[in-house]
């Protein structure tokens, strides 16, 4: 006979073994469905709001709500604008500064190019003027006979205040020799003292070792052109009893004795007398000459090459 509490125990056991009803959808699938549903609702609401906004009159509940919303958000918009303004201004400043520097560099390069081109044109024009003047001199009555001119450019000027030499762009290939006279369109420049194959060194009239036989074109007084003070020349070895006047033209003397031909042909202009003085202790007149050739700003010169053979004893 079963104990009186058996049925109760079976009932309890039966109830503990009862299984729960299975979930029809997993949790992940349910979350995805919820998100899709929310997205669909938001899209529908947005479309509805846009439709109502476009179709509603300019005044109404919706527009009032929009106005209240804009008014409520206005302080945040102003604050955001004020916060962003320094960054925006800084960005604009850096951008404009970079652009300005780039433009300035470009304009400086253009200005340098234009200036260089202008200088080249000016130099070419000056050189052309000098060459034209040389051609007029070579075809004029002052040009020495039995000589031909080799026109050339000055490629190097004196390297210091005490240097009295320059370099020309011709040499022995063009017939230049030692002591070849060098002239400009204005007058005598000097002579070649170191001829090279393609270039030559010219010693100027103002060199302390230079001595050129010369004469007064008006009074026929002869002397030696030597270095003077302040970029001038002097007509040395002129006796006190001879006459030289201020303003007289001085030219090369040329050959006096055929046994001793002069390196400089007769009649090349040298300069003009600017003062004549005497001294009790000096044996000669002090005749100061202003050279005609602009010795410190030469661009084009000519080498005088003899066309006839010259013999020396």
- Mean pLDDT score, rounded? 79
Percentage beta strand: 15-25%
Rg value: 53 Å
What's the CATH architecture of the domain at 147-306? Answer: Beta Barrel
End-to-end C-alpha gap: 176 Å
Please trace the helix and strand order, writing H or E for each element: HHHEEEEEEEEEEEE
According to DSSP, the number of beta strands is 12
**Structural class label:** alpha+beta
What would the CATH topology of the domain at 147-306 be? Thrombin, subunit H
The CATH superfamily of the domain at 147-306 bears the name Rod shape-determining protein MreC, domain 1
Reported for the largest beta sheet, the result is:
6 strands, antiparallel, barrel
Instruction: Provide a count of the helices.
Output: 3
Helicity, in percent? 25-40%
Please tell me what the overall shape is: rod-shaped
Q: Which runs of at least 5 residues are low in confidence (pLDDT < 50)?
A: 7-17
**Order of strands in the sheet with most strands:** 1-2-5-4-3-12
CATH class categorisation of the domain at 147-306: Mainly Beta
Task: Describe the protein.
The structure is a single chain. The protein is an alpha+beta fold and 313 residues long. The protein has a domain at 147-306: Beta Barrel (Thrombin, subunit H), CATH 2.40.10.340. Helices cover 38% and strands 23% of the residues. It contains three helices and twelve strands, in the order αααββββββββββββ. The strands form two sheets. A six-stranded antiparallel beta barrel has the order 1-2-5-4-3-12. A hairpin with an 8-residue loop joins strand 1 (147-156) and strand 2. It is rod-shaped. The chain starts with 5 loop residues before the first helix and ends in a 7-residue tail after the last strand. The model is unreliable at 7-17 (pLDDT under 50).
């Amino acid at each position: 006979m079963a104990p009186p509490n058996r049925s109760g125990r079976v009932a309890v056991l039966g109830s503990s073994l009862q299984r729960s009803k299975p979930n029809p959808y997993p949790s992940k699938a349910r979350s995805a469905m919820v998100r899709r549903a929310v997205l669909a609702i938001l899209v529908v609401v947005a479309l509805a709001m846009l439709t109502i906004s476009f179709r509603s009159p300019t005044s109404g509940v919706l527009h009032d709500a929009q106005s209240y919303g804009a008014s409520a958000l206005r302080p945040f918009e102003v604050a955001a604008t004020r916060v962003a303004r320094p960054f925006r201004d800084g960005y604009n400043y850096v951008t404009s500064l970079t652009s300005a520097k780039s433009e300035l560099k470009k304009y400086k390069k253009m200005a340098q190019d234009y200036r260089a081109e202008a200088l080249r044109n000016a130099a070419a024009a000056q050189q052309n003027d000098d060459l034209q003047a040389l051609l007029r001199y070579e075809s004029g009555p002052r040009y020495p006979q039995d000589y031909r001119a080799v026109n050339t450019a000055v490629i190097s000027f004196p390297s210091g205040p005490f240097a009295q030499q320059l370099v020309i762009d011709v040499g022995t290939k063009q017939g230049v020799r030692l002591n070849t006279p060098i002239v400009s369109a204005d007058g005598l420049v000097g002579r070649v003292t170191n001829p090279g194959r393609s270039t030559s060194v010219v010693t100027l009239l103002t060199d302390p070792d230079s001595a050129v036989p010369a004469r007064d074109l008006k009074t026929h007084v002869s002397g030696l052109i030597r270095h003077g003070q302040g970029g001038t020349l002097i007509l040395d070895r002129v006796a006190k009893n001879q006459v030289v006047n201020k303003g007289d033209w001085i030219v090369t003397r040329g050959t006096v004795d055929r046994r001793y031909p002069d390196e400089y042909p007769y009649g090349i202009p040298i300069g003009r007398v600017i003062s004549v003085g005497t001294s009790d202790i000096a044996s000669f007149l002090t005749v100061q000459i202003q050279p005609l050739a602009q010795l410190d700003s030469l661009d084009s010169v000519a080498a005088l090459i003899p066309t006839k053979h010259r013999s020396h004893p």
